[in-house]
Amino acid sequence: MTLGLKPELVTSGAADDASRRPVRLVEVAIDAAGAGGARPFTYAVPPRLADLEDGEAVLVEFGRRQALGVILGSAEDVPAAGDIKPIVDRVRADGPLLPPLTLRLARWIAAHYLAPPALVIRSMLPPGLLERLELVAELTPAGGAAEAMDDPVDGDLVDQLSSGARPARELAAPDGRAGLLRRLRSLADRDLIALDWTLLGASGGPRYERWLRATASGRDTASTLAGGGRLPGRPLGPRQMAALGELTAAADGLAGTDVAGRHGSSAVAGLVRRGLVEAETRERPRRPLAARAPGLRGGRPPATSLSPQQAEAVSRAVDAIGRRDARPLLLDGVTGGGKTAIYVEAIAASVEAGRPALVLVPEISMAMPLVDRLRSDLDVRVALVHSGLGDGERADEWRRIRAGDVDIVVGTRLAVVAPLADVGLVIVDEEHDAAYKSDRTPRLQARDSAIRLGELATAAVVLGSATPAVDSLGRSLDRRYDRVVLPTRPTGEPPVVEVADMRAELADGNRGVLSHALDDALASLETALGEQAILVLNRRGTASVVLCRDCGHVQACPDCERPLVYHQAGTTLRCHHCGRATPLATRCPNCHSPRIRYLGGGTERVEREVREAHPRLRVARLDRDVADRRGAAERVIDAFTAGDVDVLVGTSLVAKGLDVPSVTLVGIVSSDVALNLPDERAAERTYQLLRQAIGRAGRGDRQGRAIVQTYQPDHPVIQAVVNDDGDAFYAAELDLRRRFGSPPFGSIVKLTVALPERDAAERAGDEMVARLRERAVGTATTVVGPAPAYIARRNERWRYHVILRGDDPLTILGGDPGPPWSVDVDPESLL
Predict the structure, then answer these.
(1) Which H or E element spans position 282?
(2) Mean pLDDT score across all residues of the chain
(3) What distance in Å separates the CA atoms of residue 240 and residue 495, rounded to the nearest whole number?
(4) What is the pLDDT of residue 390?
(5) How far is residue 797's CA from residue 683's CA, in Å, rounded to a whole number?
(6) Can you state the percent helix, strand and coil of the chain, rounding each to 5?
(7) What's the rounded Cα separation, in Å, for the pair 167 and 18?
């Protein structure tokens, strides 16, 4: 739907036409699919819209149609020639959608990660906010005062608007939509109605409820009845008297649904009719934390003081907040080393300075425990942002943040694009975690984006991890980052680490997933004293391979050609790459034999074996299948923290962020799963997972114990973990990174082509490599490929990778190559 406006073109090429130019030229992110939305476009701001601000939604001419756009800011590259179209109209949305700081971050994300600007903007807004663009008509004072219209049809339009503003699509149109628009424009020209393009929030709009309050007459009536007096006219019934008494006692009133639920809707309606109670509509905010009490444990044990290393870290963070120094501070501390206590002190300093703080965690399951500890120590307003919230909750939290009504924003990578007008402190907890890298457009790295946000806001940046990313540690050694080492735990002792050689277990006839040592440790768990255990493995499901004993056929995904994983819950075979679910086959699809065997094990199998072997133990599971169910992860963690669960079985989700002093045993069921993958981060990820998991044990008064099950006990990573020799591990990894020009010594861009035909995909890869190598001549950038992806076929498409390494591979690439190519800047994996 359009207004039919015909904007005049503004010529930008001639110097003598400078006087004809509007106030300014701006870059607009066009909300359009395909290549049209891949970059911002320059538009002119006409004089009648001179008060437009950056971040406002606007209507623009885009090709032969009109499209919604968002102003990113002043145009940096003004076209040298050609015609610049003016903005058609503003879109009403209660001012700018995003504050200037968030807009600057959006422009950086779009440029650095080669993401369409409109998609970046969408990721920063509540779900559905840009979906409903409506032309809304509303009577002006002149239109409301008009008693009769010359044209009865126009008079009918005015009558339809007498009850309030309405979208044009809801108005009766006997002469068709085009005729309706002509009449609306005619009424607008006569100042009888106002026409505005308006964004009507979809599912993320505010929620309203009826609110009841006793009137002055109602309070007098309640006082008379309380004194034993009688009322003239019809007496009040018992339920009406009870409702009136309750409302009189509540000075601010009560929610109508609550009062009606206790006393009956008819009783409330009678009080309203008699003028004893008045009703009004109020917004009912959706608060994820409203019903949750602050945690009992704070950042450090009661009656304890900060260690010298903690105090040094706090001093540096507070100093950076005061000086507005955005140089990252890396907290390199052992698990349980007291990083949360440092966060608390730094946040308090930022809030005291009048600037909010942003705290990122890698997983949803880690958000709530950290929020509980922060709320235990600090009397602050906390907003929670993650994908597990409902659309309405996310929208309400977004509005709170946008209005500046919060002191701390805590969330997953989604929180880095929260609409903060200012931020004084940015904290990235477990900064090494791969979950900070998005696998969807915009494919941002939340940790790196948080560092950039700190630079834009001149905010202090704190990166915390017991196992820092190799590139982060390398930057600290190069003095690009500041660094504080926390070598010891404030409470508890480091756990004793043992290795269980699964080769010997297999030779001894043990076909289970638990070694004898780990099984005995579970049997000796003293649950009467509150001891608990965590079992970690890097695979969900019940069996990793479904194999025919007769012909050896392995059931695989028809789209990805990867082995299907058996999930006992639901009795299905599931592809962990594309998500395809397949019914369980009772006979081999290849030879029709019924002799099907399930090999390997996942979290479901471990959970079942522990339950069967140790029926006295209360067992729970936490993996991606559980976490995807709304609120399930929080319930499992709360139960484990409260001591209602003895053994928690899970994937890497349980290996980080959990601070439960009663955990005395950690078992690493499968330490070798990702160790030998053909990826340069395989060793790093395995080391981090093992060290993080082991660190969950022994945080209380009792000695902790960790058992690492492995088929490769002599592998350097396993030895580094067992001997607690992180320095040797990082030195070896940095040496490899230096040789190959990988971060922190260079940058990487991964290009992926995906086509239905394998030969076509390989040819496209060859052509791309030829072009890039020609551009890279004389530079330090190397081009590798094309090579088949580790998962060569996914979703019925063949995939090939091309890798660029160098100081500035983006310059060689020269922008997004477009379909059928996808671009991943700073990829987390080369698989």
Answers:
(1) strand 277-283
(2) 82
(3) 65
(4) 81
(5) 29
(6) 35, 25, 40
(7) 39
